[in-house]
């Protein structure tokens, strides 16, 4: 009995220690250890983390630290700290050049706000450069946002606001971020100048309310001039903006603005929606979305896959210029992989997510494409898309519009809804081996061989899951062969797109869904609503566009994808 009491006493002490909310205080760690010839301070509490921060800001910018256990900034793992964390080094623009090893532990409930005093930066770290490294770190249940800032281009990210160079590797972030007054925001890194972000995952739901006239948001990195590789985004993102001047919002599943950078072997599962509007103005509105990159300028995107739904909407309150009478033209541009590509390259990619570009105004340049919305002096090669594409103007199963000297070669539309592969083509653009194929043809091994025809024998880019089904990117098999991948998507909120376990009756928007045994009963107020049911691999099992009451009997218990018009849910039937 005494041993039991001793254990209970220890657990009580540890519980009080772990769940004491951080008040903003700092205390020096009691120990350090040597790792690989370097001395690392052992961080075990929020107070010791704050001490580490203070050392860097005092000039010891190459100090190293390692987490020895999980840290709770709030009172428990579900709480956010009431004390605000200022990004390390941000107030005086001090560059961290040391190593911070999360040691696969987590920091819970970190709250950070960008403001004038910290140059608009928010995140765990402000600036990382030199040989600075952040690795093996989990940030969970973060709450980050931006307040007023007079900076020209403020940035913020869950882990690092500005990665000058250096590395962020093998890290994970979850929680919420409102980047309303930020130019560049990312789930992990706000702006990556020349660094590397790799093997990392984002589950931070990001919203931007457009209080900056031009903004770029990415699930992993907001603006990228370095390398982003082997990363996955599961979180939904949304952008809006209503201004009396020109407003432009850009969001990408992995990177918002890829400025001469490289994006390789990444996957997006999150849904993205940008809606911008100019009020009482003759200036135009722009909205760009892409499953991997919103805007790709002189950069490259390769070996990437998108499953998320993309929607761009741009409008203006006035349809004509006051003085000239000329129409105000708005630019919503959406692509399954890239929204807009200028002087860039896209190769060996695949898209499964729906794409839509809309504009309520009569005059618009809406462009939507299964792979790229607007292709300008850029190239696409060796890729395919199997997605529904819609636009008020230019809708292509592969590309919305190809401008200038753009080139398209060996790209394929699988079951492309009888759309043109490229909706609009400039006379200087070149197209070769770009066509539609049936799903049956795409599931044949010959199609994989076609995509691999320029790959070396020992380095095949494309393969299939268990030698069947649609081609996948071989290096992404751990994601693309996961049957319930879509069920891991993180919704914007309880009314957004997400995962729902159905038992009894469930309302999805205006639609009522009921499970009776193995029957899926769907009641919708719209007689012509398009209802589709897919298996967890994306294979369509049922589709109907007639009737207010629909019924479908599933073959077995498991996860299914239910789509009612533009509302998508991953459901589990027990």
What does the secondary structure layout of this molecule look like, with pairings?
Blueprint: H1 2-18, E1 32-35, E2 38-43, H2 46-57, E3 65-67, E4 71-72, E5 95-96, E6 99-101, E7 106-108, E8 111-114, E9 125-128, E10 133-135, E11 138-146, E12 155-157, E13 160-163, E14 167-169, E15 172-178, E16 184-186, E17 189-192, E18 196-198, E19 201-208, E20 214-218, E21 221-224, E22 227-229, E23 232-233, E24 237-243, E25 247-252, E26 255-259, E27 262-264, E28 267-268, E29 272-278, E30 285-290, E31 293-297, E32 300-306, E33 310-316, E34 331-335, E35 338-342, E36 345-351, E37 355-358, E38 367-369, E39 372-376, E40 379-385, E41 389-391, E42 394-396, E43 399-403, E44 407-414, E45 422-425, E46 430-437, H3 439-442, H4 445-451, E47 462-465, E48 468-473, H5 477-480, E49 499-502, E50 504-508, E51 511-516, E52 519-523, E53 531-535, E54 540-544, E55 549-553, E56 558-564, E57 567-573
């Amino acid at each position: 009995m005494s041993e039991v009491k001793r254990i209970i006493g220890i657990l009580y002490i540890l519980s009080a220690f772990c769940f004491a909310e951080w008040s903003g205080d700092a205390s020096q760690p009691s120990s350090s250890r040597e790792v690989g010839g370097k001395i690392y301070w052992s961080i075990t509490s929020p107070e010791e983390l704050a001490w580490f921060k203070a050392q860097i800001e005092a000039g010891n910018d190459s100090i190293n630290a390692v987490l020895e256990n999980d840290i709770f900034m709030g009172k428990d793992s579900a709480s956010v700290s009431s004390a605000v964390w200022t990004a390390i080094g941000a107030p005086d623009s001090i560059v961290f050049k040391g190593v911070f090893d999360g040691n696969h532990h987590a920091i819970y409930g970190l709250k950070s706000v960008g403001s004038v005093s910290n140059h608009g930066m928010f995140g765990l770290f402000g600036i990382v450069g030199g040989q600075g490294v952040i690795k093996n770190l989990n940030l969970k249940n973060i709450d980050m946002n931006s307040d007023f800032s007079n900076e020209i281009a403020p940035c913020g990210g869950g882990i690092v606001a500005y990665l000058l160079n250096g590395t962020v590797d093998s890290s994970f972030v979850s929680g919420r971020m409102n980047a309303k007054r930020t130019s560049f925001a990312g789930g992990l890194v706000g702006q990556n100048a020349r660094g590397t972000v790799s093997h990392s995952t984002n589950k931070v739901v990001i919203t931007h309310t457009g209080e900056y006239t031009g903004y770029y948001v990415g699930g992993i990195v907001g603006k990228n001039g370095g390398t982003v590789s082997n990363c996955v985004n599961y979180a939904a993102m949304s952008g809006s903006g209503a201004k009396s001047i020109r407003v432009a919002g850009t969001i990408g599943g992995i990177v918002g603005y890829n400025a001469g950078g490289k994006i390789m072997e990444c996957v997006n599962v999150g849904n993205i929606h940008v809606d911008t509007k100019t009020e009482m103005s003759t200036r135009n509105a722009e909205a760009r979305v892409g499953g991997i990159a919103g805007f790709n300028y002189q950069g490259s995107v390769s070996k990437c896959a998108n499953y998320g739904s993309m929607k761009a909407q741009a409008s203006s309150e006035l349809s004509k210029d006051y003085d000239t009478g000329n129409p105000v033209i708005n630019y919503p541009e959406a692509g399954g992989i890239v929204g807009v590509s200028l002087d860039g390259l896209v190769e060996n990619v695949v898209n499964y997510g729906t794409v839509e570009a809309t504009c309520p105004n009569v005059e618009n340049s809406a462009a939507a494409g299964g792979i790229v919305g607007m292709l300008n002096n850029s190239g696409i090669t060796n890729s395919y898309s199997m997605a529904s594409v819609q636009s008020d103007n230019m809708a292509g199963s592969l590309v919305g519009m190809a401008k200038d000297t753009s080139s398209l070669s060996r790209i394929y539309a699988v079951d492309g809804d009888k759309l043109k592969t490229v909706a609009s083509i400039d006379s200087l653009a070149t197209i070769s081996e770009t066509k539609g194929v049936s799903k049956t043809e795409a599931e044949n091994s010959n199609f994989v061989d076609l995509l691999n025809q320029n790959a070396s024998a020992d380095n095949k880019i494309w393969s299939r899951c268990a030698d069947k089904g649609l081609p996948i990117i071989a290096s992404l098999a751990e994601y693309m062969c996961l049957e319930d991948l879509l069920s891991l998507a993180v919704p914007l909120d309880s009314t957004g797109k997400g995962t729902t376990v159905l038992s009894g009756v469930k309302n999805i928007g205006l639609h009522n869904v009921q499970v009776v045994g193995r029957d899926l009963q769907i009641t919708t107020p719209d007689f012509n609503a398009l209802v589709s049911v897919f298996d967890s691999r994306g294979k369509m099992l049922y589709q109907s566009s007639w009737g207010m009451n629909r019924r479908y009997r599933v073959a077995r218990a498991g996860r299914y994808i239910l789509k009612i018009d533009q509302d998508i849910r991953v459901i589990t039937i027990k």
